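Molecular record:
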Amino acid sequence: MGLAGFGNGIFGLVIFLLSMEGQVAREIKEEYLRSIDVREIQVRAEGIDQNTDKLQYLSMRVCAGCNTNFSNLTCKKYFCQFCYKAFCNKCSVLSLFHPETNRNERCCNPCYLLFTQKSVFSLVEKFAETKMQTEIQERAEEEKKQKNLNEEILSVKAEIELEKLKFSSESEKISLEVLKMEEKIREKMISLIQIKRKISEKEEEIENFTKNDAVDYINKKAEECSIY
C-alpha cells in the first residue's frame, strides 16, 4: 500500500470516527473534520509497547501483513521498527519518526494506521475538549443571565406584592372611613327623624292648645253674658 493508499485510509478513518456513539460527539467531530484538512495531520508514534520482543521477526517465516512466505526469493524480509514483526516490502513501505532513535524508521502498514488513528483521535479529543469547555462556559453565562433575570422577576414580583399590600391597607382605611361616614349618616338620620317627631308633637300641642284656648274663651264669654 502506497502513500496515496494511506491517504485514502486516513479518510476512511475519519468516516469511522463519525460513527462513534453520542449525537453531541458526532456533531463536534463533524464540525472539527469540516474545519481541517486531514492530509495535514502529523502522524506521531506514541504508546510504543516497551515489552515487545525486538527479535521476534527473526523467527517469522511469513509476512505478518499478507502472509507471503519469505522463502520466495521475490519476497524479501523486513521488520517494523515499532512492533518488530516481519513484513515484506509492500507491507512496510512507509516510515515514521521514532521517539527512541529520533529518526525516521521503517513502519509496517498496520502500525502506521494505528498511529494515524491515535493521532486523529488525539486531535479530535483536544478539539472536543476545547469545544465542550467553550460550550460549558457559554452555558454558564446563559445560566448566569437566566439567574439574573429570575432575580429581577422575583424583585418585580416582590414590589408588586408590596404595592398590593399598600393598596390593600389604603383600601381598608378607606373602607373604615366609609363605614364611619355611613354610621354618622345613620346617626344624623335618626336625629332627623327624632327632630321631625318632636316638631310633629309640638305642632300637635300647639294645635291642641289653640283649640283649648278658644273653647275656654267662649266659655268665659258665655259665663259673662249669663251674669247680666
